[in-house]
Amino acid sequence: MYLVQKFYDLVDFKKVMIPHLEKDEAVNGLPLGILMNANQDMKPTVMAGLYDNEQPILMLLQTHPKQIIVAVFERISPNDLPLISKLIHESITEIPGLIGDKAIVEEIAMHIASLRSLKVVLGMDQRIYQLKELKKKADQTGIFRWADKSDQAIIQQWVYDFAVSINQPLEIDQAAKRAEELIESNRLAFWEVDNQVVSMANASRPTKNNITINFVYTPKEFRKRGYASNCVAELTQRLLSSGFSSTSLYTDITNPTSNKIYMEIGYEPKIDSILLFLEK
């Protein structure tokens, strides 16, 4: 028998959910990284678990205003998804969007949209990759370096442009704040050619064994020269050398070039993920 249990204490929620998320750190890197790096000041909008005979089989977590993360712990029969969707619909008041395992999220979003007379709008169609051993190192056509406070202006502009490129635009002040956070994290890297930064990549959401690479961005004028590949390859190697067993990243399924590049480096596909918005 399925039921949805809502949580109101972050510590309790983490205690229950993290062991299940850790069973696959790459696939669950987004929610696991958020929870493991959360402090007591974080107040998620939604914390809930779908239970089957007292065992959590699915988790719902919202820390972003437009999306609820769906993490699946056990195999769910497609025949059960209409009922599960109805239970989520009845338990969660506001569902602006869902992100997670494509096969599950598409069905849940469709059923909830029908129940609420809403339409489903595609946000991002992605694939999660994981790397355990680097196959192709960065070449010597440039220099890898860590970003610092002196790079604030360019990081802010690139964060803004990156957000536009993935159809999640930010206001300038939001981009500025995100740039500051990236600098303070000390995990944002640049690839530099002839004393000019040409690409960036960031390491985020560390878990026990895995860390995620995100904010991979190269301005249009520097693309198709292998800069992003070099930046990601060198960052990946440094993360593995620092003690992580694996690294993971999200790619745009509709961009075959980036998927091919990452696979050449050594990234292997794990699961397809999708972000869907529910709109009037």
UniProtKB/TrEMBL annotation:
Q: Which residues form the N-acetyltransferase domain?
A: 142-280
InterPro entries registered for this protein in UniProt: Acyl_CoA_acyltransferase, GNAT_dom
Which Gene3D superfamilies does the UniProt record give?
3.40.630.30
What does the record give under GO molecular function? Answer: acyltransferase activity, transferring groups other than amino-acyl groups
| The protein's name | N-acetyltransferase domain-containing protein
